[in-house]
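Before relying on records like the one below, remember that each one covers exactly one chain. Contacts with other chains, cofactors or solvent are not represented anywhere in the record.
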Amino acid sequence: MKLLRYISFRLLGIVVVLLVIAVITFAIFYLLPSDPARAACVRPCLPQNLEKLSIFMGIDQPWFVQLGEFLKGILFGRSFGTGVAVDCNAPCFGYSFLRNSSVTDLVIARFPATASIAIGAALLFLVIGVASGLFASLKRNTFLDRGVMTVSIAGVSTPVYLAGILAILIFGFALRLFPTSGYVPFDESPVEWLRRLVLPWISLAFVSAAVYARLTRAEMLEVMSQDYIRTARAKGLRERRVIGRHGLRTALLPVVTVFGLDLGALLGGAVVTERVFGIPGMGSLLIEAVAYVDVQLIVGLTLFAAFAVVILNFLVDLAYGFLDPRVRVG
């Protein structure tokens, strides 16, 4: 019952947060001096055509009317224009008149590529980062510890685009092991899907695993010096059990928090990585939307990224109780 009440309050909080984000996002983009109608107007854009397009898109209405229609569209869908109207089914995050498609359909089309990059890279840098940080903490001030910290400093200092270019030069051109660009859906060819994602995964893992290695090492050193760890050892528990059950589970709490944020951000679009490797994901779609001032598409992608981060934060909160007996939901 306590768990159900906690989940209900958290879900209500998610709704409130997403509503606030939707309002702020709408205000930022729709109240700017840029004119979405002019951006979507076919050249030459005559004044009468621009006026008709503004009415059709609904941007001739007061801002609060536009905001109400926008929020209603997310929940119930909406239509643009009268007579020969354009329908946008719920959840309608807007309609891209430049692409003649709803933002939701565009996101669905691009999401598999982005999810493939995000989930694969996240699992890779989580495992590598936590494992290397754990071993470094257990071998403190040894050659292994110094080696892990040196590599992690290099990873933290390396921009993602530079890691991607180096991966292309080494594994793509020099060794010719993997393709350097493009994306193949999993249902078309699982092997080719994997081959084309290895380099993006390596690039993101090299940069992000360094953060997790340093975080895991610092947390493990602090946790293993606590009184309850000494008590567990005094009771005669095996060192592996002390480290795994009592030390690592507690040290993983901040790691899981950061992981939830990173995965949510990646699901919103790995902008630089997708651009470097020529992958048509949501990050590339966002760059195209900014280049063509497609305001509706920018707003929709922003809200989707916010939704991914908020949901994963909620899952992280639920995971706390399973990682540390001192932290229980409810």
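The two ends are 9 Å apart (CA to CA).
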